[in-house]
Amino acid sequence: MTMQNVGRPTRPDAETSAQGFTSLAGGRGLLQDEPLIFELGGWSKTGVDLPAASADASDLAGLTREAVALPGLSEPEAVRHYVRLSQKNHAIDLALYPLGSCTMKHNPRLNEKAARLAGFSDIHPLQPVSTVQGALALMDRLAHWLKTLTGMPAVALSPKAGAHGELCGLLCIKAAHEAAGQGHRRTVLVPTSAHGTNPATAAFVGYAVQEIAQTEDGRVDLADLESKLGPDVAAIMVTNPNTCGLFERDIIEIAKLTHAAGAYFYCDGANFNAIVGRVRPGDLGVDAMHINLHKTFSTPHGGGGPGAGPVVLSEALAPFAPAPWVVSGSDGLRLAEEATGPAAQAFGRMSAFHGQMGMFVRAYAYMLSHGADGLRQVAEDAVLNANYVKARLCDVMSPAFPDGPCMHEALFDDAWLEGTGVSTLDFAKAMIDEGFHPMTMYFPLVVHGAMLIEPTETESKAELDRFCEALRALAVAAKGNDKDRFKGAPHLAPLRRLDETLAARKPKLAWKPDPAGGA
Ligand SMILES: *Cc1c(COP(=O)(O)O)cnc(C)c1O
């Protein structure tokens, strides 16, 4: 078996590495193995000295204090535990993170600096409104630019993720239909390539979901859409650019057909990064669209922080927007918590307060530091980078849609792996041994063994070349019968191939003391 001479078996039972070194103590290359915090063996210590509690049962209706079996670690032990865990995490600050549909781009530190300003980070939603004028002004400016960039008249800032934004948008649509006596519309149309959150959101709101077929070239099948648009359809949910990394060329026609049938057009805006500054969804006939601030506007996401999913709304849906929003009066800015009129807050609110302030600040700092021209270049460079990856790999891997350029993602199928005995999963795991995080796998579902690569605009040509060279070498190895390298991969990660299905289906979410272990 050939293996790269890099990496570090960090388990005592791991295979001997290429250098003939086996770790004796569970660590190597200055990286340590790390058990669960409960397994570190500290039960008799505490990091702080608190006076022993005098159990006073009378105050607590007879409830007495018991030992709660928290791990007992000193401060340095606790700090080391979490630092070791953090070193096992992949992060955009470590290397390229090519997860398609996730827009894992660099998070500029300027955003972090702005978000940590005390006037934004140390305030409370219930403090006097005269003391948070700056924060309200920022929300107002952010709303202004989100509306300007999308060409939409209204925005709800409070949804806390893309999926939460979808929920907000569909609740607005439902409320608008009900207000118009169209509450009988019970179906939402979703293309087969859609992100799983789309049908899930529609079902959550109580709609029946019907799929729209896809054409050979990866776009919405207009004829199929037309045949399904009937008096029962409440909305369509279309992603643009779609999850195959392709622009829906007939998007204006899709909007027209939808409106002619009395339905609303929900656009999943997760892929806005590919068109920001170049295309305004409002001009395309979109009625509602969420914007993942944590994707397009570069706020940390995944393990790195919470998301934010503001929803822009068309004229028709704007009256149904959930509170709050910023209004200006003679005594300054305040949040309007209630609207008046028949459509007011038809479905209540999306969250207790106003949304993710820290994300608002980061997104606004990102917008201002890029400017209108900079944001446009973001989209252009994101698309250029994806096309570069597609062009550099298309002779050794099989692009799912070889004709024409892609948008911000390069999508490959597994046709090129046929007969090699290597699967998409094996190939992705082998990338870990080469020092690269795998791309998105097996999504979208419409492409067999899909590999969806989104490099984003923040990767340099040198980094893209390194990535492409690694993938090319792996592709040659896969076709060259080097099956062992793939089947057991990753060989060099702290943990080997994990049973991901079992982990997803039967996650172990709570630690239980081992009865024999004396814990
Ligand atoms: C990321 C994504 C979502 C969901 O966004 P979250 O912020 O993760 O809830 C929805 N649709 C598409 C196409 C996405 O890529």
UniProtKB/TrEMBL annotation:
Residues 1-21 are annotated as: Disordered. It catalyses: N(6)-[(R)-lipoyl]-L-lysyl-[glycine-cleavage complex H protein] + glycine + H(+) = N(6)-[(R)-S(8)-aminomethyldihydrolipoyl]-L-lysyl-[glycine-cleavage complex H protein] + CO2. Gene3D superfamilies: 6.20.440.10, Aspartate Aminotransferase, domain 1, Type I PLP-dependent aspartate aminotransferase-like (Major domain). Its EC number is 1.4.4.2. It holds the Pfam family GcvP2_C. The keyword Oxidoreductase applies. Residues 380-475 form the Glycine dehydrogenase C-terminal domain. The lineage of its organism: Bacteria, Pseudomonadati, Pseudomonadota, Alphaproteobacteria, Caulobacterales. This is glycine dehydrogenase (aminomethyl-transferring). Keywords: Oxidoreductase, Pyridoxal phosphate. Residues 183-302 form the Aminotransferase class V domain.
